[in-house]
Amino acid sequence: MFAAPRFALPAWLIGLFAAFLLASSAAAQGSESEPRVRYGDENIAVQLVADGMPRAGEEWMLALRFVPTSDEWHGYWSNPGDAGLGMVLQLNLPEGWEMGEALYPVPERFIQELPTQSLMNHIYKGPYTVLVPVSVPDGAVIDGLPDVGGYVEYLACTDVLCVPQDAALSAGQGGDFARWRAEIAPLLDASAQFEIAGEMLRLAIPIPESVTLTEPHVFIAEARLVQYPPAQALYREGDMLVAEIPLDPFGAGEAESVSGILAFDKETGVRFTAEPGEVPEGLASIGAQLGVDAPPLWTLILGALVGGLILNIMPCVFPILSLKALSLARAGGSETEARAEGIAYTAGVVLACVALGGIMLALRAAGEQVGWAFQLQSPSVVIALLVLATVITLNFAGIFELPSIDTGNGAGRSAFATGLLAAVAATPCTGPFMAAALGAALLLPTPLALVLFATLGLGLALPFLAIGFVPALRRMLPKPGAWMDRFRRLMAIPMGLTALALIWLTAQLGGRGFALFALVMLFGIVLALFVVGRLQQAGKMAWPAFGLVAAPFLIFGAFALPSGYAPPSRDLAASLLSPQEFSREALAEARASGQPVFVWFTADWCVTCKVNESVAIEREVTAEAFDEAGVIAMVGDWTVRDEEITGFLNEQGAAGVPLYLWYEPAEDAEQLPQVLTPDMLTERALRDR
């Protein structure tokens, strides 16, 4: 594939322009008896082939065989998706002969990530064949092969450019019709039903329970009816499959019938036509059909509890340990206060986990591709956490006093707020046991999924809750005293380091200019808090001054931050393993090479990911072992939202990062532990070699 010039337009924009050219030329040629070839077929050649001799009263099959001149070119399904153009065909048939609807193979999904949105096209890579049935009337006089010709317009595209194509056609004989018929998605022999429910198209497609669905997807033939990139929610029970697909907000939003192709995998599927009707509810998620076998509920609950408990010692939790430590020290007072602290802290943690889980499930139900820790993929949330971490740092350092976080009275409010913050900041990474539970939560009914999220929060809060209710544990803590104030000031150090890490993450999410604007706004907040602290020390009213000082900087941030947002791309060349960027196509190509493949999914806000990379991945000895064993390395960066990565994580039963996959040649993926030891990858690469 050639490199695009710096001034190249996006493929989708070129595709739309090419579609306009083709549509214009088709309109102009509508009155011409013999359309003139304007563009040629030098990029994707086309040939019209007839299946033997026609017979009166029977169906005669023609085939349009499309053959790209190189691997970089692709064609389109009848509904091309967000961009592109379907085939426009004219055939000159004998009088009374009728051309039927063109029949296509199962298309592929091609996703393009743009700065503001994702686009999905329905394409064909490599040679493909479109069959065109022709109805021959009874009594037709046939003397040899009829002189059937015509004209076809279509689009040939690469990843960066689209070119209109057309050709004059003349039917000849030959071709492998047996194989071409087998490639066409057959028509489902049972009727499907559909309904419009809110902003969703709901389809009920009868599919025998014996049919295996390894990578199901519903391709809708009606243009601008549904959104193409969002994840499709699929449910199955017995011989019925239900698909829920977000409607196109700019489309018609209604249809008399719905047709398309239900793909079982990348090559096979069935055509269907759906009429308005009742669509069943309450079916089980299709996740179990994708190899994500849900274990018994009690094991999931236990996994969530143990996973939340282990999360207390995971590296991604360390930045907020200062908050917990301060609360634990305060719990050394009376038994009543200690229990109130434990309950309030637990309530904050559980509420935050349930809220985050509920928001994630709601977004997924609306068609959004999100996963656990989705909040840290949002620049606005990270900015808010940065401000909060800075405020807490200054409070711990004694710059100003904030009763709801201070170590004085109001312990319950303080512990509850601490629990809320702990859960929000401590759940970007999934740990052992927790991954399976959260992955299963995406497949379970909403009430059971929320139970798992609540159990996760309970596990995270369990140590503090135990100290509140077990006197023996409280007696192990130092007695409250003047040291607590010194301890609080000492805890400003890790909290300040958290703020610095969030500044770095802000640059990773939105670019250096975005981070600079955030720092300017943050400077104003810090300055305002210093003024508040001085006024508090003088015994004067302080908080109105905060608004006066901080307001200009907050207004600046509100206008400057959106304009400065420009997320940078990951520098793959900086990695010792020289990895490829993850995509489904790249993974398939790497696996087809016959070499071992190591794929790791990471994010800049995942502390566990960074620890694993420094300990086990980004090491000279690992790079040397990979070179010796011929291992292909591939990385998926989930720092910002990536729907393809989110969908792939879901298929692996993972709700978040880190995720490490090892592929031996011709074997399925092996999930490696989420905490890597220094020699794990080198030993895995050199094993049996």
Task: Break the fold down into its secondary structure elements and pairings.
Layout: H1 11-29, E1 44-50, E2 59-68, E3 74-81, E4 88-92, E5 98-99, E6 108-113, E7 118-125, E8 128-135, E9 149-157, E10 162-170, E11 172-173, H2 177-183, E12 192-197, E13 200-206, E14 217-220, E15 233-237, E16 240-246, E17 258-263, E18 269-276, E19 284-285, H3 297-310, H4 321-330, H5 335-365, H6 379-396, H7 411-426, H8 434-441, H9 446-469, H10 471-475, H11 483-490, H12 492-510, H13 512-537, H14 543-564, E20 580-581, H15 584-592, E21 597-602, H16 607-617, H17 620-629, E22 632-637, H18 643-651, E23 659-663, E24 669-671, H19 680-686
Parallel strand pairs: 1-11, 12-18, 20-22, 21-22
Antiparallel strand pairs: 1-2, 2-8, 3-7, 4-9, 5-8, 6-7, 9-10, 12-13, 13-16, 14-17, 15-16, 15-19, 17-18, 21-23, 23-24
Keywords for this entry:
Immunoglobulin-like, five-stranded mixed sheet, 24 strands, single chain, 689 residues, elongated, disordered N terminus, 20% strand, 19 helices, 4 domains, alpha+beta
Write a short abstract of this structure.
With 689 residues, the chain is an alpha+beta fold.
How does this model look, in words?
With 689 residues, this protein is an alpha+beta fold. It folds into four domains: 11-183, Sandwich (Immunoglobulin-like), CATH 2.60.40; 192-289, Immunoglobulin-like (Sandwich), CATH 2.60.40; 295-377 and 401-490, no CATH class; 572-686, Glutaredoxin, CATH 3.40.30. 40% of the residues lie in helices and 20% in strands. It contains 19 helices and 24 strands. Strands 14-17-18-12-13-16-15-19 form an eight-stranded mixed sheet, with no helix packed on it. It has a five-stranded mixed sheet with strand order 5-8-2-1-11, covered by helices on one side. A hairpin with an 8-residue loop joins strand 1 and strand 2. The radius of gyration is 30 Å and the shape is elongated. Mean pLDDT is 81; it is low at 1-14, 23-33, 288-294 and 404-410.
